[in-house]
């Protein structure tokens, strides 16, 4: 049921007015009886003298109310909605941004979207198929096109927004691929706060949200500089009014910092404060904003004071003093040296460094190969290259962050011929190559340390540490929406404790525990080898932007604003009810008139 | 002894009444002669029954409280000095050696008093309650006259009205009928005051027939009790209209009392009519029980029951006439 002009429903106020007029109108017929004695004696046992009884018992008034209500309802142009045959498949796209948790649309924008999507599913005919896409950090097809309502309902019930700025455009693009040729409808529920909805002909968007007031924590980081530890807190006022935001920071429940920030509209403030020596070490730093607005979910942030160490490392190969020295000082959890080339002896380590050893095919795991290439990696060397010059390297890659190969000289290197993977540094041939696949994550350095002066440069420890961090699953700078992979180190199963307190089992696949990070906060992965905690920040500093339709441009289909109609109502076929209501009201009015006339001028 | 008989056979209700402003005026029958000759002829064969011995002023056709000179044997008692020797039963004296005198009931005339309620409420009904009341009074009075009883007829509303007394003999029947024919409804009902004054003015015992609808806001009990205290044989004929038993009303009404002008606003629907019926039944049961407890004969009827049927059938069954 929908209404073309809902404002016309105000005309229903005519009904109480009618009742009041009915009560006020003096319209009792006078009738002379021989005596009112018996009427008075019957008074205590019934309520004939109560004015409201006239309403209760007046059929004519009831008919008048029905007629008035029918006419008022007809003015609102009600219509029944139905799914038309031949409409094709329908793809439901739900914005999974953090802003969809805003409660300006009760209970939340996302819950409202979910309810309306459920309504769409309920109206689909038996032969219609539907798909469900979540616009999270990247588009996710939760359910491909199917006629299985139960599966769709279940996926819809489990869907939750992430602490990210959802990729609505990507999700709509993905949805368009699910209904090729435009033979279907794409229904989008979003707040369009950061990303507009592409104006495809078959896309119908519902923009949810009414409020734009939100002040939130956009970053909480722990900065280490030698022995000193500092905390960085960043707060942004996304609203259009100035706010005062009391900030309180605790470490394992004990207050370590507090202040009140006065933030102008749109202002971002960064607060840095030291975490004193006795308070350093392990623990969870928790920042909390005491601000009440439409989005409560970004008022707290957590960070680990002691980030997870680099993985445990097994060095396989002959003596390599520079590397061994580095491993002794590097922040790895454990480092051992062995000459055993049997992979069975490598179990229990997160990363294995193969240093100039020839091995057979290596089992799934994480490897840093130096001057050698396991045969099951798709980069078989085809000889050697003498004195290759490191001409280029990818400075943006996390493995090469802060690495400068400018003065590094190499005497001899393997001539790698990678079939896939990613070349990180190259001269006449690839010199540093990274690969992920087949259960393997590997970095191959095409030359031995002894064949270069790399150990004499600062790039050496930085490269090794970066490589170990990437191989071991970089736990630094994690953001919601990313996927974290942690070496299983021989374990088959782990338990993940998520920020919301829920626990899930995580099976090891191809030697790693892999899990998504939809929410910001501290995750704890518990394996037989121990516990590993990582802190995850909000996926985007713009995730707290909740102004509905803020990203809509002219001509885009996200128009409609906070009070826009549900997409259901706009794509479903409409069966106008108002003519029937008018006919019914007229019929009732005629009936009332006829009845009143038959009463010989009584109640009419 | 009060009569415990059902209401007369219900008669077919009149057609649905149009929304007139009050009860329908009296039908043309009201203006016709009270009793037709054939009915009068049938009444001549009847006589009024006195359930108790009454003391009249003249010899009549009733057993009197005065024993002695009559012809109807009543009892024996021991002879006392001064008794008339003529009444000593010598047969008993010869057998028992003791003197007993025979007692006879003296036959005296019966004092019949007819009281007709002429309050405005009696105008209700089709035909009107008052017409039936006048017809009943005429019939009972006529029976009394032809039986040489002393007949007095009076009307009352809020107090005693005109009265026609000292009627005796068939020759006064015309006076009786003319008096009744001239009665018109007026005033309010106050049975207590009316009966008190009537009895004060004429305290002789006898048969008192009260014809009324008993719709007295002040109650009927005091007046009727007073008649019993005066030793009257009281017979109440309770006349009601069909509309009073089953009102044909509905909707939003302002009911106005025909006598007092009091108005009540009611919403008449099924529930209201049900409550009215309960109040009506309680009221009628109360009247009947009251009369039963106090030895008052009671007959309830509606104005639609013909007078001849009432007299020839129900008053006979009720023991007022024979």
Q: What characteristic shape of chain B results from the CA principal axes?
A: elongated
> How many β strands of chain B by DSSP?
10
N- to C-terminal distance of chain B? 16 Å
Average residue pLDDT of chain A: 83
Q: Uncertain spans of chain B, ≥5 residues at pLDDT below 50?
A: 1-32, 53-70
Major β-sheet profile of chain A: 8 strands, mixed
Estimate the mean pLDDT confidence of chain B.
78
What can be said about the biggest beta sheet of chain B? 6 strands, mixed
CATH architectural group of the largest domain in chain A = 3-Layer(aba) Sandwich
Strand content of chain B: 25-35%
Oligomer: heterodimer
Strand order of the largest sheet of chain A: 17-16-18-19-25-24-23-21
Question: What structural class should be given to the helix and strand makeup of chain A?
Answer: alpha+beta
Describe the structure.
- The complex is a heterodimer of chains A (604) and B (322).
- Chain A is built from 11 helices and 33 strands.
- By secondary structure, chain A is α+β, with helices and mostly antiparallel strands.
- Chain A has 5 domains: 2-79 and 577-598, no CATH class; 84-212 and 552-571, Rossmann fold, CATH 3.40.50; 215-304, Immunoglobulin-like (Sandwich), CATH 2.60.40; 313-471, Class I glutamine amidotransferase (GATase) domain (Rossmann fold); 478-537, Sandwich (Immunoglobulin-like).
- Chain A is elongated, with a radius of gyration of 35 Å.
- The two termini of chain A are 34 Å apart.
- Chain B has 9 helices and 10 strands.
- Chain B has helices at residues 37-43, 90-96, 129-146, 173-181, 191-201, 221-229, 242-245, 270-293, 307-317; strands at 59-78, 100-108, 111-117, 150-156, 160-168, 207-212, 233-240, 251-257, 263-268, 297-302.
- In chain B, α3 packs antiparallel against α4, α3 (129-146) packs across α9 and α5 packs parallel to α6.
- In chain B, the strands form 3 sheets. Chain B has a 6-stranded mixed beta sheet, with helices on both faces. Chain B has a two-stranded antiparallel ribbon with strand order 1-2.
- Chain B has 2 domains: 28-54 and 109-317, von Willebrand factor, type A domain (Rossmann fold), CATH 3.40.50.410; 59-108, no CATH class.
- Chains A and B meet through β2, α2 and α3 of A and β8, β9 and α8 of B.
- β2 of chain A pairs parallel with β8 (251-257) of chain B.
